[in-house]
Structure formats: C-alpha cells, structure tokens
Amino acid sequence: MAWFQRTFRLPAFRRGFHLVTDQVASNVPEIGRVNIGLAHIFIHHTSAGLTLNENADPTVRVDFESHFNKMVPENAPYYKHNYEGSDDMPAHIKASLLGNSLTIPITNGRLNLGTWQGIYLCEHRNHASGRRITVTIQGE
Amino acid sequence: MAWFQRTFRLPAFRRGFHLVTDQVASNVPEIGRVNIGLAHIFIHHTSAGLTLNENADPTVRVDFESHFNKMVPENAPYYKHNYEGSDDMPAHIKASLLGNSLTIPITNGRLNLGTWQGIYLCEHRNHASGRRITVTIQGE
Amino acid sequence: MAWFQRTFRLPAFRRGFHLVTDQVASNVPEIGRVNIGLAHIFIHHTSAGLTLNENADPTVRVDFESHFNKMVPENAPYYKHNYEGSDDMPAHIKASLLGNSLTIPITNGRLNLGTWQGIYLCEHRNHASGRRITVTIQGE
Fold first, then answer.
1. What is the reported pTM?
2. Which of B52, B64, B114 is nearest residue C132 as measured by Cβ atoms?
3. ipTM > 0.85?
C-alpha cells in the first residue's frame, strides 16, 4: 500500500477548455508504481474546473466553451456578485457545474482512461494565472 | 486493508436515464468483505455518464431526459463538432455536466446509499453499444 | 494507514446555498491524525447536494440560487414527476448537476482546500429536514 501526494501549478491558459492529460500525468510518475489504485486530481480554485471528455477533435473543446457561455451567461440581471468583472460570477457557477476534482482508476501503472477520454482544464476566467493542482495517489 | 478492481460491460441501453444499482453491485461481490471503505464506479466513455438520484418513481428518469434535452439542445447553431450526428455533441456536454464517476461509502459490507438513492446510467447517444465500467473497491 | 467513517446530520437549512465547511470538519476530528490522505463527504439524499465554491462573499451563494432556479425552472411543462410539489423535480435535477459527494485532499492534518474554497450545502427543497452526511477518511 502506497500513498503519494504532489502539488504543482499548471501554466496559465486562456479562457476555454484545454487538454492537459499529459501535463498532469507527467507530474506524478509514481502512478507507474501502482498496480491497482486510484488517482485523485484536485484544483484549488473556484473559477476553474476539471472534467473528462473527448481527447481527439479540438472542436469539442470549442463547443464546450460556446455552450457553457450560453448556459451561464455574463451580465445576467440577477447577479449581485459582479465587482470582479463580468466573467467572475459565471466562472464560479461553471466551476460547480463541471466539478473541481476527478478520480480515475489506476491499473497496471497507468491511468485507466477510456480510449477517447482526456483530462480537460476548464478555465473560466479571462485573465487567469496558473492553477494549483494536488494529485493524491493511493494503491498497491 | 483490501483493494479489488473489476471491469465489466453494462448491456446497451436506449437513450435516457436507467437505474442500474443492482447490475453494478452484482459485478462486485467483494463489497461484502469490506467493513469501512469506498466504492469508486467509473465509466470509460465521453457520451454517457453516471449519477445518483431517485430510485422509486420512473417518471423522474423521464423528466431527466426531457430536461437535459432542453438544457443541452441538439443542432445548436454554434456547434462545430457535428459529423457524428446531432446527438453527439450534446452527449459530450451532458456527460461532463453529470460526471463520469461516483464514489460511494461502504459500511458493513454494503453500499451505504440513502433510502431513495440509486445509480443511474445516463445514456446520451441514440444508438450506443454496451458501456465499459470499472469499479475499484478499497477498505478494511 | 487509517480508515475513519462518521455519519451525522446537518441541521435543516432554508432553500439555497450554505457554507458548512466548519460544521462538516468539526464532526471529523480524525482528519487531524492524517498526514497524507483523502476525505470523502457524501450526502444521502436526492434533492440536496454538495459543492465547493467561494467562501468569502455571501452574494455568490445568492447568485447560485438565482441562477439554478432559472436553469432548472419549477413547473416546466414537460415534468411528469410533480406530486411532491413544484420544488421537487427541479431539486432532483439540481442535485445531479451539482453532485452528491466531494473528495478533498488531506495534507498535514487539514483539509487541503484553496484559500477561497468552502463546502456548500445545496438545499433545493422549500421545507427540508436536516440532511444526513457520511464522511469517510483514509490516509496515513
């Protein structure tokens, strides 16, 4: 039984959805030592999120951005929290809709993702800095 | 301390929301050996999801399908990813809204669900095949 | 390696989003014994949820309530499950959108949350009783 925990910062990304599977995995080489286990990936922010989705066609990520902008519009007349900019309150709501952590099975030293699954960083702010991530690995 | 991991395929379901608690649990009898622990249930796909919701009245599942079809419509004018059919891009978005995994406490050899909680398979494609699931059990 | 599991009831909250980080953590003092680990927080209900979001400005929680009421309206003409009141079916949908559990890293005996992250109880019913929570702690 092993526990590993690594905290690192992903670089700043522009607003939108970004495939970061390799950047996350490369920070946690200890995955390779686990036969059966789980990887928990956590983002320490309230205006960005993590999700798993299609890793092949980049237009899927473009369509995510379009759809979430429509489903959670800026400048809704009922927003009271607006002093940090028009992108701020929608960013909070999108972060909770998509979630702030992922748990992925580890099998034979690898993240056991489906063929088409990749890790998306969901960046909802217009001008974000890098984002802090903690990955916790456990297994045997 | 024990770790168990089982991968299996749920049969093909029609588009919609389906109660699969028993089908999932029956594939992992090892839950019965765990006194305190967690079950992690993961779907290896990007156009289907898993959620917990009401296990009694089947019209709840019908209303989920109606609502998600309205909240994430087909043929939105801003979709660029549409060569796999009008149900494809909405399926990806719904999958990320609902999530691709569940973590459920195990207590005294059973999934410790609330009285009204059941596991839903959220099938967002019109003509899906079976769906691959990995359950990882850990506990003592 | 240690496992702890505690079940408790949060008091009844009015419909809306409520910061409960301290109330949750105070029920699980065993977090203080864990150097590296994970806390899993689970709500045993289908019309309330848990999410992480901004812990400072209370208007964020007000805006969450406004936005989810718009995104998941009461009395939608397509709802069939309506005999438990107009707030019931929206409550189920909101619960699945926001999720029913959180997994948070533990580092050096504390929930390793971001500076601005707090635990929200998302209460979607007009007249709910208290809500049952199970926290499962594991780590070393």
1. 0.98
2. B114
3. yes
Per-residue pLDDT of chain B (140 residues; tens, 9 = 90+): 789 999 999 999 999 999 999 999 999 999 999 999 999 999 999 999 999 999 999 999 999 999 999 999 999 999 999 999 999 999 999 999 999 999 999 999 999 999 999 999 999 999 999 999 999 999 99
B93·A117 Cβ contact <8 A: no
How far does chain B reach from its first CA to its final CA, in angstroms? 4
Report all structural domains of chain A as residue ranges with CATH numbers, in order of start. 2-139 (2.60.120.460)
- Amino acid identity, residue B68? F
**Token representation of residue A100:** 């702030």
User: Strands A101-107 and B16-19: what pairing?
Assistant: unpaired
Task: Name the residue with tokens 């009285």.
Answer: B115
Listing DSSP states for A5-28 in one string gives EEEEEEPP--SEEEE-HHHHHHT-
Residue in C35, C39, C2 with CA at minimum distance from that of residue C24: C39
| Residues C130 and C41 sit within 8 Å (Cβ to Cβ) | no
- Residue A73: both structure tokens together: 């519009």
Q: Which residue has the tokens 């609902």?
A: B98
**DSSP H helices in chain A:** 21-26, 58-71, 88-98
The label of the residue with tokens 């489906």 reads A114
DSSP E strands, B20-123: 36-43, 48-54, 101-107, 110-111, 117-123
Mutation for testing the B interface, residue in A62, A67, A94 having most B CBs under 10 Å: A67
